[in-house]
Amino acid sequence: MFVMDENQAKIRIAKRIALDFSQQSKNRDLVINLGIGLPTMIPSHVTSDRVFIQTENGMLGVGPAAKLGEEDPQLIDAGRQCITETIGCSYFGSDIAFGMMRGGHIDVSVLGAYEVDERGNLANWTIPGSKKLGVGGSMDVVSGAKQIYIATLHMNKKGKTKLIPQCTLPITGFGEVDAVFTEYALFRFDNGKMILEEIAPEITLEELKSVTLAEYVVNPNLKTMPLG
Amino acid sequence: MAVTSRKVMEVDQAVALIKSGDSVMVGSFGMRGYPAALVHALSCSPVSDLTVISCDLGSPGVGLGELLTMGKVSNLIGTFYTKNSDVMDAYLAGKVQIELIPMGTFAEAVRAGGVGVAGFYTATAVGTELSKGKESRVFNGREYLLQPALRAKVALIKAHKADAVGNLVYYKTAQNFNPQMAMAADLVIAEVDHLVPTGEIDPEHIITPHNFVDVLIVRTADSWPTTMV
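ok -> structure tokens follow
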């Protein structure tokens, strides 16, 4: 089966979500929140000027990463990376930052995942026995943002699929996932069902099935994933 | 001309107001926007058995991490300790107790503590491991968890600028939990980069009004050698 270089796979996923954002923001402003890692690769591929990035540590209107030598140490994103301002940006306390989420003022949040199951449950905050001692904003984001997108490689580092019938790791949020973007496919959740919407051009439906343990239905209007 | 203020103290004088066994809120997020001079002085002070209420605990031995390294902490209430592996080690060794709260719930609990709200219901964490022991209730068909407010004996916060009466403004993403903590403790000590004459800050721009602030610490090259945090 076709296997992508990890970095190429991440770029593909970031581009596909950027395309979704460009389409969603054609006629309206779209406020998004990005988890650390892969999700932060998305903005450089967004073509719309109506997408606004919020960071949970108190800023709306996040710009690109700061250039070397031009960093303001007091201006960071949730992953402690130095960022820049955009025109029209604003700062606020953590209570407002999370109030924005719970209050339904964030349109989409894009997060990574350890596991996603066929009922839209997400596990991404801890692995028992690991050195991870913290929940951070993960549970607030998952239950608060209007749409939850998962941006993830299809397989974990051990070569096992992340899309499974039932999460085995501690859950971050139940039934909150709206879409999963991997290098092989785009799934959306609708009324508790996992639906295959797009498939990568290099693989067959049978091959996808062989690397996806979660049960899903294939949209009769299945599309080939657009590669921008 | 130097600005004078009745609220200004030296760092050591302010830290001497903190006693062993106190609960202490400290502003911070990812090693930014925390009162570095106060945290360092508290780490070097003779107190122990503190309950530290903060988003994170800096990095190992650095920032708020110094409080743990110097043996000041017996309880932690916060959200994200993954970036300081000492916290896990201390927890596994039975040296500290930890209450983990989702970050947004934590921020709102501190805010509630500051504004006279005993607790609130939130949908965050419903059904997860962090919901254990929490009362739940259904509103409009959705389940919510009861989160009690958080308050502390002392709050150590970081602001960018204070005027002589103690009005505060913050700087970019160094604001984080500081404005909420400024409301939620019996004694509020604010460490600031600059002290300006009263009236110099546009009243429309003040984030924390002065009646929330008891003590001001003004950073100097001596009290904290870096402008980074």
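Chain A has one domain: 6-224.
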